[in-house]
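$ ./design --mode recover --in tokens.txt
reading tokens...
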């Protein structure tokens, strides 16, 4: 009899788990169940209707220094469409002015504090240049507290905070060093300087005339094509992908698992020998509450942050210019936006499409708003949110004409927060799940919120399920 595996969650983690399962074990009967009307999770296509252009309204790039995403693109035949940003230069809002984002830092921690001179006062720079290395400690600590103690508050507020906020939509003084920045935690654990840890972690100088390898990559027609192509390829291998179906309960049976799907008025059941739970922490906690109680309890404690992506199309005829690929905004500046990406300057394909927009050429940019505990700004309606974004961009000195089109994409509870102690919580979840043969978990909650990390998480979950006793 063919064994069935059900993957709960059709984000990139769940789709990657399904792909790994059928690639390694073509004999398996695999089904992916997604509660939303679309797959891809935070990789999603939006449509600017007035200028008739598709856009990424979630993730728009992947980290190219990890192989998982690029390997998956190649697996599904998208390797010829991989592109890299035209420019990697970004700006930082600093005391109301735009400054070049300091280079040579590890998430804002400088390998050489002198690199921070453009954004720190003389006193702040002197403090950062005299690192206070404390005693070695194996206890987890927040990235913000660690950096502030070693290099001063200004390094956190002016450099670390905007970089971390862009990745986690959280706050540096709440985010775990052990989980989110292992190199910094290793320095804390071993009593080593943070600047020394940054020097070790950063890529070395390749010498005159040799460019550094690109940090990020995307797809020439939009990253949203990755989950779409992946679903098509999964279908060719017999995988069923069901959208708009909610899994309400997950129960253990003598031969595996029973899933209760659909509405309470019209429940449907599925049986499976293996299950991968690849959904955010709150729904995962509900599904695992009876099956793996410790995992359910711990996942229920993981907080999430909500955010929004606001995309603007502005007329090219206005003769404006933007600096580099984008700008980061520290919370200390008192603005609502936390970052802006100048998509038409960052990606050739976006620039090209914008020149052929209807009714006339446009440039595209996107901004992000929302950090953990700061959801009030997101409670505005779409029009007010667009007005707020435009006002903030103009306040930092960008010459921004009135938008020809706009699109607001809200991500409620979109990013899990890696609070201090997160690594221990993940270990507890995995230990509890390991006691249930045939069960695994995957997603951004565990080992990283980036796309390569999520893909790796899905693959690891697939391997765990495929290695279960029934699959031997």
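writing sequence...
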């Amino acid at each position: 009899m063919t064994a069935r595996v059900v993957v709960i969650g059709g984000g990139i983690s769940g789709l990657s788990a399904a792909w790994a399962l059928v690639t390694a074990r073509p004999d398996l009967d695999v089904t992916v169940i997604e509660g939303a009307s679309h797959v891809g999770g935070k990789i999603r296509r939006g449509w600017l209707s007035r200028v008739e252009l598709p856009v990424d309204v979630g993730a728009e790039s992947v980290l190219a220094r990890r192989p998982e995403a690029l390997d998956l693109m190649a697996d599904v035949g998208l390797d010829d469409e991989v592109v890299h940003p035209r420019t990697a230069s970004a700006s930082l809002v600093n005391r109301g002015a735009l400054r070049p984002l300091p280079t040579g830092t590890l998430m804002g921690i400088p390998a050489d504090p002198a690199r921070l001179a453009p954004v720190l006062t003389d006193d702040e720079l002197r403090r950062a240049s005299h690192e206070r290395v404390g005693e070695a400690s194996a206890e987890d600590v927040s990235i913000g507290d660690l950096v502030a103690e070693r290099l001063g508050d200004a390094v956190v507020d002016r450099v670390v905070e905007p970089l971390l906020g862009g990745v986690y939509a959280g706050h540096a003084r709440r985010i775990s060093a052990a989980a989110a920045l292992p190199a910094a935690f290793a320095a804390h654990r071993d009593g080593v300087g943070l600047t020394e840890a940054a020097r070790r972690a950063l890529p070395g100088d390749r010498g005159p005339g040799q460019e550094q390898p690109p940090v990020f990559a995307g797809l020439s027609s939009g990253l949203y094509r990755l989950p779409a192509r992946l679903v098509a390829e999964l279908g060719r291998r017999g995988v069923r992908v069901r959208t708009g179906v909610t899994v309400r309960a997950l129960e253990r049976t003598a031969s595996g698992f029973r899933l209760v799907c659909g509405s309470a008025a019209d429940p449907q059941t599925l049986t499976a020998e293996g299950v991968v739970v690849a959904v955010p922490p709150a729904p995962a906690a509900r599904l695992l509450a009876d099956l793996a109680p410790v995992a359910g309890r711990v996942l229920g404690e993981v907080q999430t942050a909500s955010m929004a992506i606001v995309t603007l199309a502005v007329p090219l005829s206005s003769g404006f210019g933007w600096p580099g690929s984008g700008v980061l905004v520290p919370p200390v500046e008192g603005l609502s936006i936390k970052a802006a990406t100048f998509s038409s300057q960052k990606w050739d394909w976006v620039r090209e499409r914008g020149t052929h927009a209807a009714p006339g050429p446009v440039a595209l940019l996107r901004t992000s708003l929302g950090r953990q505990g700061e959801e009030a700004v997101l409670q505005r309606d779409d029009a007010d949110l667009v007005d707020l974004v435009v006002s903030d961009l103009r306040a930092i000195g960008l010459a921004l004409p009135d938008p020809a089109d706009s699109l607001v994409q809200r991500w409620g509870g979109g990013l899990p927060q890696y609070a201090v102690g997160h690594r221990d919580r993940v270990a507890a979840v995995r230990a509890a799940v390991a006691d249930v043969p045939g069960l695994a978990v995957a997603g951004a909650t565990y080992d990283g919120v980036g796309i390569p990390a999520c893909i790796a998480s899905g693959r690891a979950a697939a391997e765990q399920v495929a290695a279960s006793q029934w699959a031997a």
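exit 0
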